[in-house]
Write a structure and sequence with these properties.
The complex is a heterodimer of chains A (about 500) and B (about 500). Chain A folds into two domains: about 180 residues, no CATH class; about 190 residues, P-loop containing nucleotide triphosphate hydrolases (Rossmann fold). Chain A is about 50% helix and about 15% strand. Chain A has 16 helices and 13 strands. Chain A has a six-stranded mixed beta sheet with strand order 9-10-11-7-12-13, with helices on both faces. Chain A has a four-stranded mixed beta sheet with strand order 4-8-5-6, covered by helices on one side. In chain A, a hairpin with a 5-residue loop joins strand 12 and strand 13. The longest helix of chain A is centred in the first third of the chain and has 34 residues. By secondary structure, chain B is an alpha/beta fold. Chain B has 15 helices and 13 strands. In chain B, the strands form three sheets. In chain B, strands 9-10-11-7-12-13 form a six-stranded mixed beta sheet, sandwiched between helices. In chain B, strands 4-8-5-6 form a four-stranded mixed beta sheet, with helices on one face. The longest helix of chain B is centred in the first third of the chain and has 24 residues. Classes of the chains: A alpha/beta (about 500), B alpha/beta (about 500). The interface between A and B is large, with 85 and 78 residues.
């Protein structure tokens, strides 16, 4: 169970499951240079990496995306709230690790060998766990009071405020806190205990559970006088007639072992429950880091005078990408003034694929990158670099950019071609209907004829699989394509797009 | 044992399969240590069809099978209680544990007596014995008393210790524990339940047991009386049923598993002449791997051709074939069905395996270790066994390996035992032994077919030679995503 500001319908399985698309999304983010952009915007490498991890899992429904967009909008309007929450959850992040570290410290000098030593260590572990439980529970109040001081509209932030209020009023949470408060004295000698045991049919104790803990009375004169006064004013407690056998003082070792088991059971269960409660807000610090990146992105574009918009989200089946004034964030972050960056209107409506052609250095790569980045940002719940945009959600976004020569030796054309083939094969393994594949000069590392033939079959297969593609290419054979379901765009020397 | 055996009509054959055979051929993945203990003791040939009949009966009667499973569960309890009884520290403890043990014996007897008539001579004899016991009045009274006292013993199993400083009290006080309160709260909060369970096993010392007896004086007096009257009536040979029952139950589970995988099961016929003839033989150990296509092969050994070398490509299925053969023969000798289409096998005396065992050789080196193990087999096989040699002598130089192999082949060929010898050695034609070989499809990039066929001479081994294919050609793409349409130039 966990509260999330990133996912409206948070599924734990999604967070911990092995993502088969992770590698493909890493390639996409690399090819689109989104990693560079994010790292430049982020306050720290840690936040940057977290943000990229989030972007590697594009959201697939408008509902989820709008949930994020609304939270970001609240933080844009209340930047101090984000700062305060970041401080709170930064401390929260260390609660569990501190608890674990302190527990490990109990055994700094090795595991005790005597029953007394073992009992002391178990009590110490229980005491630390009780403290962890009390602190964890206290955060519900802190978060409630903090969010309550701001005007927020988003479902995420109003939800967390209401959730904290409900938890503060919860009787069970109080009871957990109350039990955790019993174990604050320094040593186990400060208490008297009752431990209930269950033996098996061979008289081995199989379970020991603590049923009563009483602090040993303070025997100072003042305390004794107080107790005497209390007895005089109250009626005596009823006599305890439970059958009991006095076993005297000769069972120290066994008694310690039984008590140790009772304390240990409580320690493990309390630890597990405190850990589960801790889960409610686990990871929120990272999530707030994502919004911090989003806030910095908005501030940077505002500062540069660059246009941005929250895109209108269309269903996958609408199969459209329409953007006015689309530009390449990468150019902006490299220092080019917004006025010098060519902004294009791009409309790709309901077609199997798009071929982009044009002479060298006419903006083909910038445009395919802008389209890819816009989709990626949109499906992360962030604004996109355009004056306005309507974007169909994509199941996945794949890239094969031959210009990314990270793994290839330029002198080894055969190796480069094989590397490209491997990348394309990996994409073909993962494609799903309504995915989009961006190819940038793919298969131009071999003869045009052979490369073109290979690409023709691949594009055909993508269409058959219900995928869409955008292919930037110099291969002349594609100039002769005549399918009405393939859009052809041409780039001129002025970096402007012409629809052919 | 004084209880009737479920494995042997009269007695075992007096020969045992070595434990490592079960490990080598991976039968340990299907049978527990207890079952393997039962399978290692070979039965007389006459008992093979008797066991087959019993397994067939159990396979067709789910209720009886379920009863045997419950009996097996009780034997686990019996073993645990019996071990505890051997280790008691005071009379009160002894009396208490004895009550539990005898109540479990009573559970076993009553359930065994409830078995229906039938199932062949072994099960019939087993059921009759317990029906007869339960019909005896004195026996029945003791059984009822044990059950009654077990209920009293159960009441004394929950106590509370009160502790203050070094003082200790024992009391009957059962209030809700903090952990129970926490778990209730967690449940109300919708938190996941705590699944961890610490394995606590603290033994009450004699003084504590005596304190317990003081808290429950009447019950403990009854336990003492019961022990005094019945101490001599426990027969520990009942514990052997653990091995016997588990053997049948695990054999049935294996049969279920083979059928679930869509593979054939057959009850081998007992051959009148000396031979192994198995058609469509499958290796059951491949059931352990998911997504594997299991290819059947034939295995035929006769008095005229008792010895084969098996050679061929790495990863082609040689060891699989050897294992399949070994599994089939061990299962047959245990009275179980085998995973094959059809089989006729003569009752062999034993099964021997010789696998590479890195960990086993000692100071003398691997070759000496191999020779020692070969020597043990030569001494023990008796001329009517199955011997399976897997790359024997592969750890020494080629000349010595070939010489040793030829010498070994000469001895085994003449002995009458059936032998399958996997080897990569060349120059073994002098042994005048037929060769089996794995078939590779040379027209399809040396694809392994996992078929084993007879060859005139040994074939060479192949190095790793699989080409990387990316599946981006037109045909592959059309096959995966459908043909034609889309882009056209």
């Amino acid at each position: 169970m966990k509260f999330s500001l990133l996912y409206k319908n948070y599924e734990e399985t999604r967070e911990f499951a092995v993502d088969p698309m992770k590698e493909a999304m890493e390639e996409t983010i690399y090819d689109l240079s989104v990693d560079k952009a994010v790292m430049e915007l982020c306050a720290s490498g840690e936040t940057g990496n977290y943000t990229l991890e989030v972007m590697k899992k594009p959201l697939k429904t408008a509902e989820e995306i709008e949930y994020r967009q609304a939270v970001l909008t609240d933080f844009v309007g209340n930047p101090h709230l984000l700062e305060e929450l970041q401080d709170i959850f930064k401390n929260y992040d260390t609660l569990q690790s501190d608890w674990r570290e302190m527990q490990a410290g109990i055994y700094t000098y090795g595991v005790p060998q005597t029953s007394g030593g073992i009992l002391d260590a178990t009590y110490e572990a229980l005491k630390l766990t009780a403290s962890f439980a009390r602190k964890t529970v206290s955060y519900f109040r802190t978060v409630y009071e903090t969010v309550g001081r701001y005007e927020v509209q988003s479902e995420g932030l109003t939800g967390i405020r209401e959730y904290c209020r409900e938890m503060m009023e919860n009787r069970s949470l109080d009871e957990i806190s109350e039990i955790a408060s019993l174990f604050q004295r320094d040593t186990v000698d400060a208490y008297r205990f009752k431990v209930r045991t269950e033996t098996d049919d061979t008289l081995r104790i199989g379970a020991a559970s603590l049923t009563e803990v009483l602090e040993v009375e303070d025997n100072s004169l003042g305390e004794r006088m107080k107790r005497l006064a209390a007895r005089l004013t109250k009626s005596a407690p009823p006599a305890d007639d439970t059958p009991e056998v006095d076993m005297g003082e000769f069972h120290l070792e066994t008694a310690r072992s039984i008590l140790n088991e009772g304390l240990y059971e409580l320690y493990t269960v309390l630890g597990s429950i405190a850990g589960s409660i801790y889960e409610f807000f686990r990871g929120l610090s990272g999530e707030l880091g994502f919004y911090d990146t989003g806030l910095r992105f908005v501030r940077r574009l505002t500062q540069e005078g660059a246009p941005m918009c929250m895109p209108k989200l269309l269903p996958m089946e609408a199969d459209a990408f329409r953007a006015k004034g689309l530009y390449d964030l990468h150019l902006l972050l490299e220092g080019m003034p917004i006025g010098a960056i060519v902004r294009n209107d791009v409309t790709i409506d309901n077609c199997d694929g798009t071929l982009i052609r044009g002479a060298n250095s006419t903006g083909k790569t910038c445009t395919i990158r802008s389209i890819g980045a816009a989709i990626l940002f949109a499906q992360a719940g962030l604004p996109v670099c355009a004056e306005s945009a309507e974007i169909s959600l994509r199941d996945m976004l794949f890239c094969q950019f031959s210009s990314a020569e990270k793994d290839f030796d330029a002198s080894d054309a055969a190796g480069r071609f094989e590397g490209e083939v491997k990348e394309v094969a990996a994409i073909m393994e993962k494609i799903t209907p309504w995915s989009l594949v961006l190819f940038n000069e793919t298969f131009q590392t071999t003869s045009y004829a052979e490369g073109a033939k290979g690409m023709q079959h691949i594009l055909e297969a993508l269409t058959n699989a219900g995928c869409r593609y955008i292919f930037v290419t110099h291969m002349p054979v594609f100039d002769r394509m005549t399918s009405p379901r393939v859009l052809k765009l041409d780039f001129g020397k002025d970096y402007r797009i012409t629809r052919l | 044992m004084s209880y009737p055996s479920l494995l042997f009509s009269e007695k075992a054959a007096g020969r045992r399969i070595a434990a490592h055979v079960f490990e080598d051929v991976k039968l340990t993945a299907f049978f527990s240590e207890e079952s393997i203990g039962a399978m290692r003791a070979l039965c007389c040939p006459e008992d093979i069809p008797v066991r087959q009949d019993l397994l067939r009966y159990l396979d067709g009667d789910g209720a009886v099978r379920q009863t045997l499973q419950k009996l097996s569960d009780i034997t686990v309890e019996l073993m645990r209680l019996h071990a505890a009884l051997q280790d008691v520290k005071c009379e009160n403890e002894r009396n208490y544990v004895f009550v539990g043990l005898m109540a479990a014996v009573s559970d076993f007897e009553l359930l065994a007596a409830s078995l229906p008539e039938g199932g062949g001579p072994l099960l019939q004899r087993f059921g009759s014995r317990f029906r007869s016991d339960c019909a005896d009045a004195a026996h029945s009274a003791r059984s009822r008393k044990a059950q009654e006292l077990r209920e009293a013993a159960d009441l004394a199993r929950k106590e509370t210790f009160r502790m203050s400083g070094d003082n200790l009290w024992m009391r009957s006080d059962f209030r809700e524990s903090y952990v129970e309160r926490l778990q209730r709260c967690a449940d109300e909060l919708g938190l996941p339940p705590y699944r961890g369970k610490r394995d606590v096993s603290l033994r009450l010392d004699a003084r504590m047991v005596n304190a317990l007896a003081r808290l429950h004086p009447e019950a403990f007096l009854s336990f003492r009386d019961f022990y005094t009257q019945n101490a001599g009536s426990f027969d520990d040979s009942i514990l052997s049923y653990r091995f016997e029952l588990d053997f049948y139950l695990e054999a049935l589970k294996l049969m279920d598993r083979i059928r679930a995988a869509g593979l054939p099961l057959c009850w081998p016929q007992i051959a009148g002449e000396k031979k192994i003839e198995i058609r469509e033989l499958y290796d059951i150990s491949l059931l352990l791997k998911e997504g594997v296509t299991i290819v059947p092969n034939d295995a035929v050994f006769t008095g005229e051709e008792p010895f084969f070398f098996l050679t061929g490509a790495n990863g082609g299925g040689k060891t699989t074939y050897l294992r399949a053969l070994a599994n089939a023969v061990v299962l047959f000798l245990s009275g179980c069905p085998i995973c094959a289409g059809k089989a006729e096998i003569s009752p062999l005396d034993n099964v021997f395996t010789h696998f590479p065992q890195d960990e086993r050789f000692e100071a003398d080196g691997r070759y000496a270790d191999e020779q020692r193990r070969v020597g043990e087999i030569l001494e023990a096989h008796g001329g009517n066994s199955l011997i399976l040699l897997n790359e024997t002598y592969s750890t020494t130089n080629e000349e010595l390996a070939v010489r040793s192999t030829l010498e070994l082949a000469e001895k085994l060929k003449a002995s009458g035992s059936f032998t399958l010898y996997i080897t990569h050695q060349h120059g073994l034609e002098a042994a005048q032994v037929p060769f089996l070989s794995v078939i590779v499809d040379q027209d399809d990039q040396n694809r392994r077919t996992y078929r084993i066929a007879r060859r005139l001479e040994a074939e060479g081994s192949y190095a790793a030679d699989i080409l990387r294919r990316y599946g981006l050609d037109e045909e592959s793409l059309n096959r995966r995503f459908g043909g034609n349409g889309g882009a056209e130039a």
